[in-house]
Known about the structure:
By secondary structure, the chain is an alpha+beta fold. It is about 45% helix and about 20% strand.
Amino acid sequence: xxxxxxxxxxxxxxxxxxxxxxxxxxxxxxxxxxxxxxxxxxxxxxxxxxxxxxxxxxxxxxxxxxxxxxxxxxxxxxxxxxxxxxxxxxxxxxxxxxxxxxxxxxxxxxxxxxxxxxxxxxxxxxxxxxxxxxxxxxxxxxxxxxxxxxxxxxxxxxxxxxxxxxxxxxxxxxxxxxxxxxxxxxxxxxxxxxxxxxxxxxxxxxxxxxxxxxxxxxxxxxxxxxxxxxxxxxxxxxxxxxxxxxxxxxxxxxxxxxxxxxxxxxxxxxxxxxxxxxxxxxxxxxxxxxxxxxxxxxxxxxxxxxxxxxxxxxxxxxxxxxxxxxxxxxxxxxxxxxxxxxxxxxxxxxxxxxxxxxxxxxxxxxxxxxxxxxxxxxxxxxxxxxxxxxxxxxxxxxxxxxxxxxxxxxxxxxxxxxxxxxxxxxxxxxxxxxxxxxxxxxxxxxxxxxxxxxxxxxxxxxxxxxxxxxxxxxxxxxxxxxxxxxxxxxxxxxxxxxxxxxxxxxxxxxxxxxxxxxxxxxxxxxxxxxxxxxxxxxxxxxxxxxxxxxxxxxxxxxxxxxxxxxxxxxxxxxxxxxxxxxxxxxxxxxxxxxxxxxxxxxxxxxxxxxxxxxxxxxxxxxxxxxxxxxxxxxxxxxxxxxxxxxxxxxxxxxxxxxxxxxxxxxxxxxxxxxxxxxxxxxxxxxxxxxxxxxxxxxxxxxxxxxxxxxxxxxxxxxxxxxxxxxxxxxxxxxxxxxxxxxxxxxxxxxxxxxxxxxxxxxxxxxxxxxxxxxxxxxxxxxxxxxxxxxxxxxxxxxxxxxxxxxxxxxxxxxxxxxxxxxxxxxxxxxxxxxxxxxxxxxxxxxxxxxxxxxxxxxxxxxxxxxxxxxxxxx
Length: 874
C-alpha cells in the first residue's frame, strides 16, 4: 500500500518538478561538499602556504645575516689595512695608551656606522673597546681562542643579554702582528624590523641560554612573552624546526633557526612567524560565499525551473517519439528541433542517424529490387559477364554468333542419387568455367547438355579455346561448334524468367550432338569454311562425315587434333567472322588461356594451399577463381594473369604492386588482399571473396541511382579512398567496374593493379605520355602523361559520381575515345543538370568541382570531399 501511495505521488509530480527537486538536492549536496572540501583543503593549503612563507623568510633571514657578516668583514679589513690606523695602534701598544686607541676606535665606528669596536693585543687581552664598561675576555673565551688560532673570526656574539654581529681581523705593521681588531653591530628591534620588511614575516631573536631571553623582535611585548613561553629549541643536529604556537589568541606557525657563534656553536635563535588565521581567512570567506550562493541558486531555481525545463523537455519528448517510431522501422521523420547546446547536438545526432538508416534502407530496397528483376540463373553454377551482354533481361534480338554445345557422357548410374547429381554438377561447373574463362556466355542447360554462345572479339577462336579446356578436363564429353544466326531473349516459366536461345545454328548444334562421339569435336560446314585454311596450314586433317538429317557434310576431330587446332588458332589465327560470307582475315588477339589456366579446374590445389572450386570471371588482364584457402580456413578469390599478360614484365610488376600496396590497406570499404604466389611461372594473388555486383552492373539495371542510395555509395567510396591515401597509395583506376556492392549495400573499392605509392611518383617511374587506367575516368593530367596526386583519384571519383547521379559520364556522347579525351583536356564538363534537371544544386557543385580540368580547382583531399557530401545528405 505504501509503495502504491509513493508511486502515485511520484506520478503526480511533473517531470519539471522532479527535475527541480533533484537539482535542489544536488545543489545542496554540492554546496555542502564544497564548503567541507574548501574548509579541509583550505586549512591544508593555508598551513602549507604559511610554512612555505616562513621557510622562505627563514632562508632570507639567514642570507641577510650572512650579508651583514660579509659587510662587517669588509669594513674590518679596510680598517685593519689602513697603514695610518695600524701604525697608531702600534704606537698605542708601545705607549700603553688605551685611551688614545679608544678615541681612535670611536672615530672609526662613527665613520663606518658600526656599533662597537675592540682592539686585542697579540696575547688575546682586550686593550681597548668602545663599550661603556670594559669587556672582560680571557684567553679561554671561545671568541679569543678562535681569534688566536685562526687570526680571524665571524659570527653571532652574545654579550650582556644582547646579540651582536661580530667579525675580527689581524692588525699588522710591516708584516708583524700588532694585535686584532673586532667590529660589530647589535641585533635590536630596528634590525628585526628591517628583517621583517625584507622577509615579510614576523621576526624574533632569542638567546641560547637555558632560559632563552628575548633579544629583539617585531611583536609587541605581550605577544613576545607568550611566544617565549611556547618556544622550543630544535633538537641537537637539526638546522631548523617548525612549531605551532598560539600568540595573542591567534594560531601561528614559527620556524626556529640557530644563530651560529664565532666558534660554530649556537649562540642564539632566530624565529620567523606566519599567521594561520590570516591565511585561513580567505577560505572562510569562500565557504560563506558558497553557502550564500547555494541558497540563492536554490531560490532562483524554484522560480526558473519551469522556464528552464520547458524548452529542454519539449525537444527531448520529440526525440523520444522519433526514437520510438524509428524502432518500429519508420525512418521517414523530420526532426524540427532547433535547440542549441547539448540538446541541439543530440537532435543533430538523431537526424544523422535517421539519414543513415534511410540511406541503408533505400540501398537495400534498391539492391533487392534489382535482384528481383534480374533473370534467375539456371540450375548449373554458371557465370555471366557484362561483355557477353547477359547481365540483365534484354528484349529479344537476333545476331550472328558462334555456338558451342557440350554433352556429358558416361555419367555414373547405379550409385546413390546424390552422387550422380554431385558428379553432374562438378562436370557442368568445369564446362561453365571453361566458357567463362574465354568470355563466353552460358545460354541454356538441358539435363546433361550445356549450350554457350560467343560473339565479338574473335568468337570462334575463343570457342576453340573453351573446347580444348573442356576436352582436356572431361575426355568423355561430346563437343560441337556451329556458327550462324541465333535469337536470344527472356522467357518466363511460372514466375521464373530464364534466358533462351534459338535459331538455325542452335538447331544444327542440337542435331550434331545426337551424332557426336564421346571425346570428339564436330564442326558444321560454316565453321569448317572458317578453319579450313588454318587446319591445312597446320597439317590437321578434318574428317568429313554426313549429317543424316540435313545430308550436309560435318567435320570431326579427335581430342589431340582439337587441341592442335586450338593452339594453331591461338598462335596464327587468320579469322574470325560469325557468319558465312563475312569472313575477313585479320591478326589474332586471342588471349592465351591455355597457358594461364592449365589444369586449374575444380579440385586443383595451388601452392599446396588454395583448392580451386570454380571460375568467377575473366577479364582482359586476368582470370578470377573461387578457391578454399586451407591456411585461412575460408573461401577466397584467386586472381591469375592471362598468357599475354604473363609475357609482359610490366604487367607482372603491376600485379606484384597490386598486392604490395593493397595489403597495407585495411578498411571496410576496401577489398582485402591476403597473399601472393606463383604456379608454373604464373603469378597470382589471393583476396577477399565478396558476394555482390559491381557498380557497373548496377548502373546497367538503371540509368542512375536515387539520391539517398547514391550518397551512401559516394561516402563509402570516399572512406575507402581515404584509407588508401592514408597509406600514401594512389588507386589511379577508379571506375564502376572496380567498385563492388555487397547484398547489404556495403561498397568495396578493389583492383589496385595499377596503383602507385604517392611518394614514389617521381620522374621516370611512369613513362611520359603513358596512359594507365580507363580513359573515361582518367584526369586530364593523366591523359597528358603528367605527374599525378590525390586530386587525380578525386577526378575519377567525381566521374563515377557524375555517372551515378546522371546515368552518363562527362563527354560520353563523343563519337570516338580520342575525341572524348581531347574534350577532357580542352573543355569544361557539361552541367550534370543537363542530364537530370532535378539534381540538387549543392550536389551539382560538388560534381563539377571534382571533375574540374585544373587540379587546383578540385577538392584538395578526399576528407574535404567527404565533408561536402555529408552536408548534402537529405
